[in-house]
Amino acid sequence: MFAGLAQRFTHLRQLLITLLVFSVMPAPSSAAGESEQAAPLIFGIVPQQAASKLARVWIPLLNELSETSGVPLEFATAPDIPSFEERLARGVYDIAYMNPYHFTLFHEEPGYEALAHARDHLIQGILVIRRDSAITSLAELANQTVAFPAPRAFAATLINRSYLDKEAPGYTANFVSSHDSVYRSVAAGRFVAGGGIHRTLKAMDPEVREELRILWQSPGYTPHAIATHPRVDDPIRQRLAAALESIEMTERGLNLLQNLRMNGFERATNADWDDVRGLNISAQ
């Protein structure tokens, strides 16, 4: 009799243990969700500068955003601006930092949605010349060769060229792939002038920057967009937007922003770039 009771007790204990194990195991759907979230979003940065320089200032910021938002982010760029445009058109990047003109194009197709832009900042095109140049006006660039980063760089090319077309007829545009290349080429005397923006000029190596001066600057426009591909769902977008807004709240965040010559980020809507759409500009 006692042997039978012992056997039934053993079976009961095994059943209780089995029930306990299943009660604490995570549901299969939850595990799958965690696996999907672990895949990083590809964050594409417009290649205004050398890839090594972009990586040095952007990767620490993306790491901070990943930690704050819980959304893994992976840095990416492209060899040049035309390649970046081609990747935007194909939707290679889940999220991207792109110039204002790019945003107006790639919002239409494949449908990138505005998330944020730099706070308290308007983007201006600038034309730089050598510090020892005798040129004092745009009109003196007529029939000269002027360096630009790429045909569809917004402020550095499109805005600057829209004014040169009126003020310096007969000038020739030469595209040298990046803002850094513009500044180096003008400093070296290969071109009399070149197009850029304040932020990239400030980030230029001092020995190059000190050889240059700003000849002219344009009015200001809504700055570069941070935008997400339609496949990024709204809960993820909201977490990223909150992380971008809050990055300036810590000393570490402020240091990371300073490396990018930015004060912070604010949430954006697609309509924020209506000033750019109103220019009705097109790549030349």
TrEMBL record:
It comes from the Bacteria. The keyword Signal applies. Residues 1-31 form the signal peptide. Keywords: Signal. The keyword Signal applies. This is Phosphate/phosphite/phosphonate ABC transporter substrate-binding protein. It comes from Marinobacter adhaerens. The lineage of its organism: Bacteria, Pseudomonadati, Pseudomonadota, Gammaproteobacteria, Pseudomonadales.
